[in-house]
Write a structure and sequence with these properties.
alpha/beta; Rossmann fold; 10 helices; 12 strands
Length: 281
């Protein structure tokens, strides 16, 4: 079986390629320099040349705030390019796994969003990612895996930022009014591999670690793992840090579909963070 990872230079893509190759799998790893997903002819040519069995799309415009001012540019990557990739996968009979986001929801819920909850994005980033989801789902054959609050060993992320700030500052203020699920790229990579291997029905799956916390709660856990006093982390509110794009106040995703298709959902976020820690510190 041949895998193709598009966006292979990013945080998740790098981890997925590493784990696939560690299993001895045949992997075509395409970074942004290797393949501009906005170039429809190049995308179709790459699929025809390599003829992968499974394609994982980790390429995305992830600059959430910049998308507010450049929605068309974000849509070209997060929506239009995904439609091209989905069609190219159909041409070579490849299974597509598209990585999406919690930002397709408005963040106003008070209980985990199920996989079939109606999307209602409130930011340009969320709208463009929803366009990509629909491009995949319209084919009736691909997987959409929504994730959130990703961290890992490759690339910048909140956990690494807190580790740096812990060495630079006596105290750190972190928002305590946004709830979500910190998710380790290592666990998400394993879940994607399991999903493709399972032959589960196409559709939407939620790829986040279980449980929930706030950014403040996650920061305290990071300080504790560093052997530092978690009380050095001080709670604050989102309105203290105004940003161009609204942040969902509640980004907790439900995982019922994994169980329904016979796959185990991802473990609790604290357990995952402790397992990931040797690769992060």
């Amino acid at each position: 079986m041949t895998w193709m990872v598009v966006g292979a230079g990013g945080m998740l893509g790098t981890e997925l390629v590493r784990r696939l190759r560690g299993r001895g799998r045949d992997v075509v790893a395409l970074t942004r320099a290797d393949l501009d997903v906005r170039d429809a002819a190049a995308v179709r040519d790459a699929l025809r040349r390599h003829r992968p069995d499974a394609v994982v799309n980790c390429a995305a415009w992830t600059a959430v705030d910049d998308a507010e001012a450049h929605e068309d540019a974000a849509l070209a990557v997060n929506g239009d390019a995904v439609r091209t990739l989905a069609a190219a996968c159909g041409d070579v009979d490849a299974t597509l796994v598209h990585i999406s986001t919690d930002y397709v929801f408005d963040g106003r819920a008070d209980r985990p969003y199920p996989e079939d909850a109606p999307p209602a994005p409130v930011s340009a980033y969320g709208r463009t990612k929803l366009a990509g989801e629909r491009a995949v789902l319209d084919t009736g054959r691909g997987y959409v895996v929504r994730t959130a609050w990703l961290y890992g060993a490759h690339g910048p992320n909140f956990v690494r930022t807190m580790t740096r700030l812990a060495a630079e500052r006596d105290t750190v203020e972190v928002v305590d009014d946004q709830r979500g699920q910190p998710t380790w790229t290592g666990d998400l990579a394993e879940q994607v591999i399991a999903l493709v291997g399972s032959g589960a029905p196409p559709g939407v799956y939620h790829g986040t670690n279980a449980g929930e916390t706030t950014w403040y709660g996650l920061a305290r856990e990071v300080f504790a793992l560093l052997g530092l006093d978690p009380d050095r982390v001080r709670p604050t509110t989102t309105d203290r840090f105004p940003r161009p794009a609204p942040r969902p106040a509640y980004s907790v995703l439900g995982h019922d579909r994994w169980t329904r298709v016979g796959l185990k959902p991802m473990r609790d976020w604290r357990e995952a963070l402790h397992a990931a820690w040797p690769s992060l510190s």
